Every structure is written in structure tokens, then in C-alpha cells.
UniProtKB/TrEMBL annotation, chain A:
This is Sulfur carrier protein CysO. It comes from the Bacteria. It comes from Kolteria novifilia. SUPFAM superfamilies: MoaD/ThiS. Coiled coil: none annotated.
TrEMBL record, chain B:
PANTHER family: EXO-ALPHA-SIALIDASE (PTHR43739:SF5), XYLOGLUCANASE (EUROFUNG) (PTHR43739). It comes from Kolteria novifilia. SUPFAM superfamilies: Oligoxyloglucan reducing end-specific cellobiohydrolase. InterPro entries: WD40/YVTN_repeat-like_dom_sf (IPR015943), Xyloglucanase_GH74 (IPR052025). This is BNR/Asp-box repeat protein. Gene3D superfamilies: YVTN repeat-like/Quinoprotein amine dehydrogenase. One of its GO terms (biological process) is xyloglucan metabolic process.
Length: 92, 351
């Protein structure tokens, strides 16, 4: 099973300490998120809203691709892929 | 004996520590850097709880034994998917030996166990028949105040902006609006019993009938557990303000009136705290040591606290990040040498 790495913003250190990278084994993006919040359950509420959707102001990149441009999270991942979480807030 | 003051701001929390004299203070922080810290309390078991929030990452509860080292609580309060609601902020936390209660935006109450680990919504309030008429105030649609009857564990009150005060007589199962005597601010066509903008609540430590209410449209008192309210503003420059606090030892009340809801800053740029020593009959300005000119900072509803020592310490945090404090019940004041982010909540803990 491929190993992919989540890169997390420093603001989420209140949930998981100083850990900024979390490697997980998964076949798809959806599975990767599932493994992530199982291992780090305090991230669940920060990443997903009450509907179970990725919070609207989170920018999530699968390598260089915005996951919101995908049709869903059932996308295969490959060994070495990086999933990056940013806050999608711009301007003043 | 020590005094600790937990200051929650828009970008983290700060911990102020002093001894009983409350003359010299150390300032530590930021804790939760970058996060809104919206509420805090100490449970009867001696642990501390804090509410944090983020526009991006949501609102969560944290637990600590020393106010410095915090751990996020797994699986905090949450609305169901079916409710269509979201928790945007945790506005208030109330803890007893038996349970934990939080008030949130979007307005609602959640009941947790004493360890604050398992939670359920209080449907009697959250799905109240008047809910369709609930409208947000400037600070959102938030359940921001919880007070308990000192003599009746089944009776408690909740303040919601801009909806009003509700009372439960059965431990939170069912709730009734209690706003008779308060001017309505957002009148609904159907639900006339809501549409009141309570800003702050306080209760007498012995008399569960005696409640105090800083409302959008004035300062009020109830002598009958909230069934009716009477205006008590003698001596106040304005009825508008946000926080109200009560010292358990002296029963002195403290408030920070601002110049009307249009301006929301101290009248004439003169920052003053007001004190009532006669249960709200009259109010006196406290200005000794407070900024006397060019001060246009507001004080939000959670940003006033007393430590209940004798004499009591009084602590005020401003929207400009100043902390004004008194160690002698409000007679004299000093301003700490710091400029913090916008201050959202202040809680004082004496040991």
C-alpha cells in the first residue's frame, strides 16, 4: 500500500503537538484522510465540518492539485505523494 | 495565595500571575497562538477548560491542570449533520461536580459529563419552538451566558443574543423565555417572547431570585428569578454595555457602560468602570488610575472578571488589548504594561 505524507500547518499544533508531517498508508485520498483522523482523532473537528465535508476555508493540495477541483476524494494516491493542508484565507 | 488571570484574545491566550497583593504581575503567552480563545473556566475538580476557535479550523475545547499546558479534548460538542447547524465558537463554559455545559454560536447548549468527554445537545433549548424567530446580534447568534441558581440545581438561565434570556426549571430539559420588562430589539411577527438582546448575566450567590442583566437596551434587575425585570441605571452614563460581574463576598456589581450601540466606546474617551454597592440601586464611576482621555477601547461581554478575594480583584480587558486591573475592589486601578490582541474573555482564579 502506498505511503503518502500529510503536511500540516503550524496552527494545528494545538491538536497534535509540534508534528508537522504525518505519513499514512492508503490507496486513495479518502482513505488517507480516514487513516489520518483515526491516528490523530483531534484533527477530525479541524478538518471536517458537521456535514463531514472538508471545512470550506481549508485549501488541500494533492501534490500540486487542489482537491476541490477533483470530483471527489476517491482518487488513487501513489507512493511519495504529499497532501498539504493550508488555510484558504486571502486578502485583508 | 495567588491570583491567576486567563486572558483570551483574538490571537491566543495570556496568563497573568500575581500573589495576593496583586501588585506585581508576570505575563506569559501566547498560549494557543493564532487561535481565538473565547472562554475559560475552572471545574470544581480543579481542572481548567478553555474554548478556542478558528474561522478555518472550527471550535474546540481544551483541558489543563495548570492553565499553561493544554490538551485538546477529543470529540467535543458538535451539532448533528441533520441539524444543519455548525459550532462556530464556544462562548461560555459552566462546570459543576456532575456535568459540564457549554453555550455556543450557532446558538445552543451542549451538556457534557464532568470530564467534558461525552456530549449531547440540549434539544429543549436548541430546538425551542421560537427558534425560527431567533436572529443574530452583531456578535453572532450566540448562547453566551449561563448562570445557575445557588439553591436549586434544577434551575438555570441562558442568555442568547439577540434572542433573550431563557430559564429552565428541570435541569436543562425544557426552557421558557424570561424577558418581561425588557424592551424588544428585534420584534418577530409571531414569537413575541423572543427578540431581546441580552449581553451579560449575573446572579446573587445566595438568592436565586436576584438576577442582574446588562442588556443592549439597558441595565436591568430581576427579583423573581427572571419572571420580570426592572431597569436600574441610576448613576450610569449609558444603559449600553456588555459585561456585568458580581463579587461573591461583597455582592458589589461591576459593569463597563459604553457610549450607545452606535459608537461602542467610552463616553468622552474617558475609560471608567462602574460599581454598584447596593444591588444595582445606584452606580458609581471608578476612574482612579484608568485612562482619563483619548481612550476609545471597548470591552466585550466576556472581558470583565472578579477574583472573589478580599478585597476583590477586578480585571478588564479591552478591544485594544489593554488589561486594567484593581486589587482593592475597584477603588484604584493600574494598566499592565502590555498590548495584547483584541481581548475576548477574562477569567480570574484565586488559590
Amino acid at each position: 500500500m502506498p505511503t503518502v505524507t500529510f503536511e500540516l500547518p503550524s496552527l494545528l499544533s494545538i491538536a497534535i503537538g509540534e508534528e508537522s508531517e504525518v505519513p499514512v498508508e492508503a490507496e486513495t485520498l479518502a482513505e488517507a484522510f480516514e487513516v489520518l483522523v483515526t491516528r490523530r482523532p483531534t484533527l477530525q473537528i479541524h478538518l471536517f465540518d458537521e456535514s463531514g465535508d472538508l471545512r470550506p476555508h481549508i485549501l488541500c493540495l494533492h501534490n500540486d492539485q487542489n482537491v476541490r477541483w477533483l470530483t471527489g476524494l476517491d482518487v488513487p494516491v501513489a507512493p511519495g505523494d504529499v497532501i498539504t493542508i493550508h488555510q484558504a484565507v486571502s486578502g485583508g | 495565595m495567588s491570583a491567576r488571570v486567563f486572558v483570551g484574545t483574538a490571537k491566543g491566550a495570556f496568563l497573568l500571575t500575581s500573589d495576593h497583593s496583586r501588585q506585581d504581575w508576570t505575563i506569559e503567552g501566547p498560549l494557543f497562538p493564532g487561535w481565538k480563545v473565547t472562554s475559560a473556566t475552572r471545574t470544581p475538580r480543579g481542572t481548567f477548560l478553555a474554548g478556542t476557535g478558528s474561522f478555518v479550523y472550527g471550535a474546540t475545547l481544551h483541558q489543563s491542570d495548570d492553565l499553561k499546558n493544554w490538551k485538546q479534548i477529543e470529540g467535543g460538542p458538535s451539532y448533528s449533520k441533520e441539524s444543519g447547524r455548525a459550532i462556530k465558537e464556544i462562548w461560555t463554559i459552566d462546570a459543576t461536580e456532575e456535568r459540564t455545559l457549554v453555550g455556543v454560536d450557532e446558538a445552543g447548549l451542549f451538556l457534557g459529563d464532568a470530564e467534558a468527554k461525552s456530549w449531547k445537545p440540549l434539544g429543549g433549548l436548541n430546538d425551542h419552538p421560537t427558534r425560527e424567530a431567533w436572529q443574530p446580534g452583531f456578535g453572532g447568534l450566540c448562547a453566551h451566558s449561563i448562570v445557575r441558581d445557588p439553591n436549586n440545581t434544577e434551575r438555570l438561565w441562558c442568555g442568547i443574543s439577540a434572542v433573550g434570556v431563557f430559564r429552565s426549571d428541570d435541569g436543562g430539559e425544557s426552557w421558557r423565555p424570561k424577558n418581561v420588562g425588557i424592551p424588544v430589539i428585534l420584534e418577530d411577527k409571531v414569537h413575541k417572547e423572543v427578540g431581546f438582546c441580552v449581553h451579560g448575566l449575573a446572579i446573587d450567590p445566595d438568592d436565586g431570585n436576584m438576577l442582574y442583566r446588562q442588556d443592549h437596551l439597558g441595565m436591568f434587575r430581576s427579583r423573581d428569578a427572571g419572571d420580570t425585570w426592572e431597569r436600574n441605571e441610576e448613576g450610569l452614563p449609558s444603559g449600553f454595555g456588555f459585561p456585568i460581574a458580581l463579587d461573591r463576598t461583597t455582592r458589589h456589581l461591576f459593569a463597563v457602560p459604553l457610549k450607545s450601540d452606535e459608537y461602542r466606546f467610552p463616553a468622552d474617551g474617558h475609560f471608567r468602570v462602574y460599581r454598584s454597592r447596593d444591588r444595582g440601586d445606584t452606580w458609581e464611576p471608578l476612574a482612579n488610575g484608568l485612562p482619563s482621555e483619548h481612550c476609545y477601547a471597548g470591552v466585550l461581554r466576556g472581558a470583565l472578571a472578579v477574583d472573589h478575594l478580599d478585597p476583590c480583584g477586578v480585571y478588564v480587558g479591552t478591544t485594544s488589548g489593554s488589561v486594567h486591573l484593581s486589587g482593592d475592589g475597584g477603588d484604584s486601578w493600574r494598566t499592565l504594561p502590555c498590548t495584547l490582541p483584541r481581548i475576548l474573555c477574562v477569567e480570574a482564579f484565586a488559590d
